[in-house]
Recover the amino acids of this structure.
């Protein structure tokens, strides 16, 4: 079993440069992304009453916030993390040519998409629903970002099959299983969105085709849009299973639970997308109910994870001297500067508890009628993607950057407080937005001009105090990211004190190390995944493609007249 | 096999999800809180409409467009049973009425549908909750639910208001100079009892005065002249009348029985 004491792993300089770029470039963009996040809460609370500030129009900013934070930052990080995890745990070299190819395609795509977003030619939000139309560069750019990440995935597969051949009868390291599950889901679910973007949207935005089937485009988007959530979440789960038990001083409670969870996610994370379309016309409600049931099913591996991680923490705490039914909670390294991964991952877990519960509420179609497209939704996903995902990605970005450059965390005290401040901020922010959402406040709306403006006919007084809460929470979140950026960018420029490129991941040993053969092999689970997708998506897609809905002509966001 | 406590967690998680699933199914089948589905009865429409039916039932056609709803304000009597149909004219829109289960997407090319009974009096906000372009934040409407008597009064008032608007237009545009409203003779046919009357035209055809004839004759006075009246006597309005103004005039004519 691989432990972190017997193994030295070194990353070559030529690989390090690109890996550092993969972490630093999206982090620079993220500065803009989170700053726009701060602006959002100020608009929502009515502190900004304008169509835009600092040259960024509101919906242009919202598009940037979504695309940078949720697509660019996450994809770049995961490609870097994936390259390192696969090489580290399989003891294989990084395939430099593939790393370069993948990174440059992703970077070109990002720049292509950034240009129209920054010039206001793609204010269509990160869901880019037609018939609102963006510049063709935006569609092409996002497609390239995705294709770049596929290249990374393809380069890991021969390492995996090679390792399996060289190590017959051995369990694949859990972190590798997690990252391969993540990118397998990603590869499969990006196929429909690639079809939407390249076959439906791109020719349409170039004017080669005149009309588009909106229901079909939306369905293909959400075919991708929900598994996307697991693309974000599973690398965080890798850290929860493999690293968190170790930094808390203990062992992973059950190795098999991790494997079962990753395999269940493989099967269940994709055939659930229609739960984003409960309120849509043109789709038979029977299919919606079916996806709803599968969505409840995908909560099961998360339950299992929550329990296993909590049990692992208990083991860690008790190894550190804790005892009793609840007393052991006091024995965890909440503020330990040397084990600073702990507070990041732990705060993420706390948020994810709420993210899970609100997610089950959203998945329950009837309750969803109350909250669909209200402020409740961003309140929910800020406790998931901006909870465990964001915190663990930030932590691991800093961790890897320090190792790649051979530096220590520049400001350890700030670093330990960063996740706690984020937890505080997001708790306030999400409480405010959740209540406002239940009261009917819409998401994705420049509230400052109307609903949050007492001078407007549309002013809604009952939402106001909850939006003020959102603004307070959002400001604390912003402050927390400022603390993080100070550490990250300082780590990027300070002089190396140690050997650059020497890397070790904290890796927990299993407490229960059961062998369950049927979760140690991807093949049956990939077959099950394909079957589940076919059953869940062929009937609704057939119904939509043969349906009688009329097709739509393009519109730009600034004009109610169709594009000529 | 996996560890005992993990097995228990597995069992608890599955049981919990089955409980949630049954509650959701009960809410759907037992309480009738259902999701929008395919709708084949009504084709996508471009005009908002309120069609009163028997027994306090209403069929309402809502059009969502950049950046308003049609009807912008809907008045309903208490306990109105509403079959709501929703069409989008241009891009995706949302339709949300806080305080109710009405929460729908408006998608161009398809018609969405929902049913709601407005049991509580009061003013409801209709919100577009899907981003639909730069003025999205301005896109909202109202539903006013009033008592039965109040509703009848408002409807009468609205009818009178339309009639008054029609009468005023007739005066402003100097229609009344030639068309009397009391049945006496003028340069043009009297408007009293005109609607639904059989008229012989100068070209020998016989017609019944209906909406189509009136619209045509208001906009193109010389096209279908009633026997014994002179062509060229009535100039078309300049600037031309809007569709709504024509409607108001016709409603006024209809009321002159």
């Amino acid at each position: 079993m691989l432990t972190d004491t017997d193994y030295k792993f070194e990353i070559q300089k030529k690989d390090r440069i690109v890996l550092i770029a993969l972490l630093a470039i999206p982090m620079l963009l993220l500065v803009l992304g989170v700053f726009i996040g701060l602006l959002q809460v100020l608009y929502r609370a009515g502190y900004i009453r304008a169509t835009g500030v600092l040259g960024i129009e509101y919906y242009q900013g919202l598009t940037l916030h979504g695309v940078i934070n949720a697509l660019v930052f996450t994809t770049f990080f995961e490609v870097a993390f994936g390259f390192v995890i696969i090489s580290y745990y399989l003891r294989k070299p990084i395939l430099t040519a593939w790393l370069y190819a993948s990174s440059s395609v992703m970077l070109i795509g990002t720049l292509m998409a950034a240009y129209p977003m920054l010039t206001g030619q793609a204010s269509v939000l990160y869901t880019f629903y037609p018939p609102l139309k963006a510049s063709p560069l935006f569609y092409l750019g996002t497609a390239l970002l995705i294709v770049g990440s596929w290249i990374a995935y393809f380069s890991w597969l021969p390492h995996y099959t090679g390792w399996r051949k060289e190590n017959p009868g051995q369990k694949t390291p859990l972190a590798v299983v997690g990252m391969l599950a993540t990118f397998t889901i990603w590869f499969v679910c990006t196929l429909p969105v690639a079809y939407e973007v390249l076959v439906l949207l791109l020719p349409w935005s170039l004017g080669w085709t005149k009309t588009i089937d909106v229901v079909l485009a939306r369905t293909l988007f959400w075919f991708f849009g929900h598994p996307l959530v697991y693309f974000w979440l599973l690398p965080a789960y890798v850290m929860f299973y493999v690293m968190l038990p170790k930094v808390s001083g203990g062992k992973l409670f059950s190795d098999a639970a991790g494997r079962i969870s990753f395999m269940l996610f493989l099967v269940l994370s994709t055939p659930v997308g229609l739960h984003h379309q409960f309120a849509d016309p043109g789709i038979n409600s029977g299919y919606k109910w079916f996806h709803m049931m599968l969505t409840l099913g995908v909560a099961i591996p998360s339950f299992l994870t929550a329990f296993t991680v909590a049990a692992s923490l208990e083991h860690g705490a008790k190894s550190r001297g804790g005892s009793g039914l609840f007393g052991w909670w006091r024995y965890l390294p909440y503020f330990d500067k040397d084990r600073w991964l702990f507070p990041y991952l732990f705060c993420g877990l706390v948020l994810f508890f709420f993210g899970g519960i609100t997610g089950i509420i959203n998945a329950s179609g009837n309750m969803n009628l109350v909250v669909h497209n209200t402020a409740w939704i961003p309140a929910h996903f800020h406790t998931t993607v901006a909870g465990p995902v964001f915190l663990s990605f930030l932590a691991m970005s800093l961790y890897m950057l320090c190792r790649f450059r051979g530096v220590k965390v520049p400001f350890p005290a700030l670093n330990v407080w960063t996740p706690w401040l984020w937890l505080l901020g997001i708790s306030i922010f999400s409480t405010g937005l959740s209540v406002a959402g239940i009261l009917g406040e819409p998401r994705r709306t420049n509230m400052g001009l109307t609903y949050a403006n007492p001078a407007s006919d549309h002013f809604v007084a009952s939402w106001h105090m909850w939006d003020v809460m959102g603004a307070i929470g959002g400001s604390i979140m912003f402050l927390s990211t400022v603390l993080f950026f100070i550490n990250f960018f300082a780590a990027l420029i300070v002089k190396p004190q140690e050997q650059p490129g020497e890397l070790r991941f904290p890796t927990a040993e299993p407490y229960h190390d059961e062998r369950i053969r049927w979760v140690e092999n991807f093949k049956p689970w990939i077959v099950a995944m394909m079957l589940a997708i076919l059953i869940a998506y062929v009937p609704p897609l057939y119904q939509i493609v043969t349906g009688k809905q009329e097709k739509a002509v393009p519109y730009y966001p600034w004009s109610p007249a169709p594009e000529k | 096999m996996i560890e005992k406590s993990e097995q228990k967690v597995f069992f608890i998680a599955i049981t919990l999800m089955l409980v949630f699933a049954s509650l959701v199914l009960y809410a759907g089948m037992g309480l009738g809180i259902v999701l929008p589905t395919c709708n084949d009865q009504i084709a996508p429409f471009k005009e908002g409409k309120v069609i009163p039916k028997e027994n306090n039932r209403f069929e309402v056609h809502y059009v969502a467009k950049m950046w308003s709803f049609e009807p912008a304000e809907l008045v309903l009597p208490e306990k109105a049973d509403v079959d709501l149909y929703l069409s989008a004219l241009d891009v995706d829109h949302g339709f949300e009425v806080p305080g109710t289960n009405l929460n729908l997407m408006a998608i161009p090319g398809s018609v969405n549908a929902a049913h709601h009974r407005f049991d509580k009096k009061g003013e409801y906000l209709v919100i577009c909750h899907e981003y639909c372009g730069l003025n999205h934040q301005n896109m909202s409407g109202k539903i006013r639910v009033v008592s039965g008597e109040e509703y009848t009064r408002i409807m009468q008032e609205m009818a009178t208001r339309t009639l008054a608007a029609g009468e005023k237009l007739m005066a402003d545009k100097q229609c009344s100079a030639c068309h009397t409203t009391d049945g006496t003779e003028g340069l043009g046919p009297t408007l009293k009892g005109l609607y639904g009357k059989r008229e012989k035209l100068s070209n020998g055809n016989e017609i019944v005065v209906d909406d189509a004839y009136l619209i045509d004759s208001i906009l193109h006075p010389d096209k279908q002249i009633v026997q014994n009246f002179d062509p060229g006597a009535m100039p078309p309005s300049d600037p031309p009348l809007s569709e709504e103004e024509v409607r108001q005039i016709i409603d006024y004519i209809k009321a002159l029985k």
Summary: Residues 4-30 of chain B form the longest helix (27 residues). The CA atoms of residues 90 and 189 of chain B lie 44 Å apart.
